[in-house]
Automatic annotation (TrEMBL):
PANTHER family named in the record: MEMBRANE TRANSPORTER PROTEIN MJ0441-RELATED, MEMBRANE TRANSPORTER PROTEIN YJNA-RELATED
Organism field: Agathobaculum butyriciproducens
Taxonomy of the source species: Bacteria, Bacillati, Bacillota, Clostridia, Eubacteriales
Domain of life assignment: Bacteria
Family: Belongs to the 4-toluene sulfonate uptake permease (TSUP) (TC 2.A.102) family.
InterPro entries in the cross-refs: TM_pro_TauE-like (IPR002781), TSUP/Inactive_protease-like (IPR051598)
Membrane-protein topology: Multi-pass membrane protein
Assigned GO CC terms: plasma membrane
Entry's localization field: Cell membrane; Membrane
Transmembrane residue ranges: 20-37, 44-65, 71-92, 99-117
Key words, A-Z: Cell membrane, Membrane, Transmembrane, Transmembrane helix
Name recorded for this polypeptide: Probable membrane transporter protein
Length: 119
């Protein structure tokens, strides 16, 4: 399969996850970019951020149009998320890929356990 088709399918899966769950497309995007598209780990993390941002913006607009996005409640999370994004972006080049992978794995496990407990 051509690499551009793989990237498009990977992006579509990430966008679908983002649309269904409100976010979280990166949970699918990073592993797919690494394993299926053969991308180096750090580049996959950075690419995921670049792809997820516009997907989240599109999802936010759709949720807002359908009345499901309370802006006033979202602002504190946005501010905290922006601060975390700036800090992580500055530290990104200093963190080894192995540690990024471990942290990502812990995040996935935590999210999975929380999701199961909420069922």
């Amino acid at each position: 399969m051509k690499i551009s088709v793989k990237y498009a399918v990977t992006g579509a899966l990430s966008g679908a996850a983002n649309g269904f769950f409100g976010a979280g497309g990166g949970l699918f995007l990073v592993p797919l970019l690494i394993s299926w598209c053969g991308m180096e780990q750090k580049r996959a993390f950075a690419t995921s951020v670049a792809v997820i941002f516009p997907l989240c913006a599109v999802s936010a607009v759709i949720y807002r149009l359908k009345g499901g996005l309370p802006i006033a409640q979202a602002v504190p999370y946005l501010l905290g998320g922006a601060a975390g994004g700036v800090l992580a972006g500055k530290l990104f080049g200093r963190v080894k890929a192995d540690w990024l992978r471990r942290a990502f794995g812990v995040l996935i496990l935590y999210g999975g356990v929380r999701a199961v407990l909420l069922l």
